[in-house]
Amino acid sequence: MSEEQIRSLERQFDERIARDEKIEPKDWMPEKYRKTHIRQMSQHAHSEIVGMLPEGNWITRAPSLRRKVALLAKVQDEAGHGLYLYSATETLGISRDEMYEQLHTGKAKYSSIFNYPTVTWADMGAVGWLVDGAAIINQVPLCNTSYGPYARAMIRVCKEESFHQRQGFEIMMKLANGSPEQKELAQDALNRWWWPSLMMLGPTDAESVHTEQSMKWKLKRKSNDDLRQQFIDQTVPQAELIGLTIPDPDLKWNEERGSYDFGDINWDEFWQVVKGHGPCNKERMKARIGAWEEGEWIRDAAMAHAEKKQERKQKQAV
Ligand SMILES: [Fe+2]
Ligand SMILES: [Fe+2]
């Protein structure tokens, strides 16, 4: 294809996105669009399945049958989100094996929030309320993103995320209204998860390298700092409602802006965790790689079974 032809295709492509048309797997797309989507969507898929680990940690120790059922359902939802997203990413021409390989060798990232430990039951509340809460803020705009398979997957994912957020908030509410020890557990979990949740919305706009192009492709509708502000403004009144204190002495309502001012985020900590030096990075990767290796026999058995069935079918057809 000549350069001119490519430029003309690119122009048509940009016009389609501007008209809010969806781009489908067999449509022509610029190589950069395909690569950026593979990176973002696979990173999202990896985050869903690595995100199962800190909460899976508490399934056997949930304090009641009701809590256990809800947590189990939530963790199962995350597995489902991972599966939709891996499938959607495969439509861009990368195999699932390649994506796992990238995760296991550290070439692909997952959300750094999942490298923090879940040390008490209250962490199940804080994670659902804050981590899933921040995820919703990030993901709702993606329901309108330009790549069809991603946008459609996100509609269902977001509906399930709002259940996750509510089950987390309900755990926090119950603990905050319980005995002094229970309230302390809730406050302690909020203290530990608040700042990492703010970091989850990504580096400040000045340091975010992909923002401009992603905005053009509607892969991003608001900047990281705007999303963070939205998260803070929505979460502070929820903490007040249940009598918990946000661990930020600089947090203050700004009448003029109609938003909360907040203290400095420790970006050194964020980059340390992203680079693999968070409290649980090694543990998470060990669990993922272990699951992949120990699951080899079942993948092999499933393939052998499928081949046998296929052979039988062919014999019958003869
Ligand atoms: Fe999810
Ligand atoms: Fe979730």
From TrEMBL:
<dbReference type="InterPro" id="IPR011881">
    <property type="entry name" value="PaaA"/>
</dbReference>
<protein>
    <submittedName>
        <fullName>1,2-phenylacetyl-CoA epoxidase subunit A</fullName>
        <ecNumber>1.14.13.149</ecNumber>
    </submittedName>
</protein>
<dbReference type="GO" id="GO:0010124">
    <property type="term" value="P:phenylacetate catabolic process"/>
</dbReference>
<dbReference type="GO" id="GO:0005829">
    <property type="term" value="C:cytosol"/>
</dbReference>
<dbReference type="InterPro" id="IPR009078">
    <property type="entry name" value="Ferritin-like_SF"/>
</dbReference>
<dbReference type="InterPro" id="IPR012347">
    <property type="entry name" value="Ferritin-like"/>
</dbReference>
<dbReference type="GO" id="GO:0097266">
    <property type="term" value="F:phenylacetyl-CoA 1,2-epoxidase activity"/>
</dbReference>
<dbReference type="InterPro" id="IPR007814">
    <property type="entry name" value="PaaA_PaaC"/>
</dbReference>
<keyword id="KW-0560">Oxidoreductase</keyword>
<dbReference type="Pfam" id="PF05138">
    <property type="entry name" value="PaaA_PaaC"/>
</dbReference>
<dbReference type="InterPro" id="IPR052703">
    <property type="entry name" value="Aromatic_CoA_ox/epox"/>
</dbReference>
